[in-house]
Design goal:
Keywords: Hydrolase
CATH architecture of the largest domain: 5-stranded Propeller
InterPro entries: Peptidyl-Arg-deiminase_porph
Number of strands: 26
Number of domains: 3
Structural class: alpha+beta
Distance between the termini: 75 Å
Pfam family, one: PAD_porph
Helix content: 10-25%
CATH topology of the largest domain: L-arginine/glycine Amidinotransferase, Chain A
Protein name: Agmatine deiminase family protein
Mean pLDDT: 92
Low-confidence stretches: 1-27
CATH class of the largest domain: Alpha Beta
Radius of gyration: 26 Å
Length: about 500
């Protein structure tokens, strides 16, 4: 994939972007990301319009950000530039929450003049208090392969924002599970395989009603996630995990880096070390990458949507460095940078909420490592679930592999005795060879997906072990050895 960066000169920023943000809620149509003095007096109103329900029943999975997506949720008046919306609308349905029909007309006019693909836009009329759709928006889960919404209690006394997941569920015909837990989307990151992380803000905001173990149990019941809660990094601020960390895939975490002398310098280094010592869902230690974020920059606050990564830029000399970190860390993705009214603890991720594909092909596979493989063919065991409900195409179930960077070949997977489970065997290779591989599947809905999501550019890798001789090879070796011994004896006998 080519890389493309949207850089705007400082003069262009003030000429073009300021008019775009003239109607933005950070002027007069939105409450700030932090609690106002007035709201601090109304904390007892948090969740007054929340509707609780029992937890879902069945196999529950909370999808990850990098999984197949079809859309993104934002709010009008805007907190993001039109240029970002235009880029998102190339591939995704941009759902804009508007308070009135007049706001919808205003948004449509601005979108049209700003180059947004209007065929990829839709609107939901519902009043809101702010544009932090990440924080108050829906959390998406799959229950027995059916997409649904988990609605947490938004941690602000903002009743309009708090009921947006209900409005979206009604509009899209999705079941909404109301979870009686005060939480916020920016303080929750999931790796899509049964584990998620937050800072201890979730414990502190619920400690009047719930113990830490009860919070953990609720996250498991509603999201299907084992829960890791981490101590604070900053001495103040909103304490959201997306202010300093981001999952890039199930085993890779991007962690903020700051200059020595910064109040969080030692804590961030200790946290990066701690995470690198934890075991991921793929039974591997996390790979922790660092991204330098001097004061005023929130480079971890990006969003992954399909094969694009949208990164906030700050007119800083470190913008290009940050983009290169993403380039190096995420091969095959298109890395796009955007200027905006971003803050040190708030940027693109906070103001957008991705929407997964309800009919996605979910491919679950624990990649082979050097320690997993032995002599002989290499088994690739995979679980494939077609959430579309359409049959898989048997001849599309493939393991693509390459040896030492050579051309790609493939083997077809076959079903096992277990439901949704398939296996394919990469042929045995010469010991020491580097094997790269990825899994591909398609179903009759027309969806084609790979594992890892980006396919060949970020393929799984392992080193082929030395090969053990077969019985036939041992027989040949023994025969040659016996002949050699006989020849040596004959020569010695002749010499004597």
């Amino acid at each position: 994939m080519k890389s493309r960066v949207v850089f705007l000169l400082l003069s262009l920023y003030f000429i073009v972007l300021v008019p775009v943000f003239a109607e933005s809620p950070d002027r007069e149509d939105s409450l700030p990301i932090y609690l106002t003095d007035e709201e601090l007096q109304r904390l007892d109103e948090i969740g007054i319009r929340h509707r609780s329900t029992s937890a879902p029943v069945g196999e529950i999975r909370n999808s990850a950000e990098w999984e197949p997506s079809v859309g993104v949720i934002i709010r009008w008046p805007l907190g993001i530039p039109i240029s970002l919306i235009a880029e998102m609308s190339e591939d995704l349905i941009v759902t804009t929450i508007v308070g009135t029909q007049q706001q919808q007309s205003n948004a449509q006019s601005s979108y049209t003049s700003g180059g947004v693909n209007m065929s990829n836009t839709e609107f939901i009329i519902a009043p809101t208090d702010s544009y932090w759709t990440r924080d108050y928006g829906p959390w998406f889960i799959f229950v027995d392969n059916e997409m649904a919404i988990v609605d947490q209690v938004y941690n602000r006394p903002r009743p309009n924002d708090d009921v947006i997941p209900q409005a979206i569920g009604t509009e899209w015909g999705l079941t909404v599970y109301g979870m009686d837990l005060i939480h916020t989307g920016g303080n929750h990151m999931s790796e899509g395989l049964g584990m998620s992380m937050s800072t201890r803000l979730v414990y502190d905001e619920n400690d009047d009603d719930l113990t830490a173990s009860e919070v953990d149990a609720m996250m498991l019941a509603y999201l299907g996630n084992d829960y890791t809660v981490l101590e604070y990094i900053e001495s103040g601020g909103i304490h959201h995990i997306d202010c300093w960390a981001k999952f890039l895939n199930p085993t890779t975490i991007l962690v903020k880096d700051v200059p020595p002398g910064h109040p969080s310098y030692d804590l961030l280094n200790a946290r990066a070390l701690f995470l690198s010592q934890q075991t991921s869902a793929w039974d591997q230690p996390y790979t922790v990458l660092r991204i330098f974020c001097p004061s005023g920059t929130a480079y971890t606050n990006s969003i992954i949507l399909r094969d694009k990564v949208f990164v906030p830029l700050f007119n800083s000399s470190y913008d290009s460095v940050a983009l290169q970190v993403y380039e190096d860390a995420m091969p095959g993705y298109e890395i796009l940078g955007f200027l905006g009214s971003w803050l040190d603890d708030d940027a693109i991720h906070c103001r957008t909420m991705g929407v997964p594909d309800a009919g996605m092909l979910f491919i679950d596979h624990v990649p082979l490592t050097d320690d997993d493989v032995s002599a002989g063919d290499y088994p690739i065991l995979t679980t494939i679930k077609a959430c579309s409900g359409q049959p898989l195409l048997s001849d599309s179930l493939r393991v693509h592999y390459s040896v030492n960077g050579g051309s790609w070949q493939y083997v077809t997977m076959q079903s096992t005795k277990l439901q949704d489970e398939y296996i394919g065997y990469i042929p045995s290779q010469v010991g020491g060879s580097e094997i790269s591989y990825y899994v591909e599947a398609a179903d009759e809905s027309g969806r084609v997906e790979t594992h890892p999501y980006i396919g060949a550019p970020w393929a799984h890798k392992f080193i082929a072990p030395p090969q053990v001789p077969t019985l036939d090879e041992w027989g040949i070796f023994l025969t040659l050895a016996l002949l050699t011994v006989a020849i040596i004896k004959k020569r010695k006998s002749a010499q004597s």
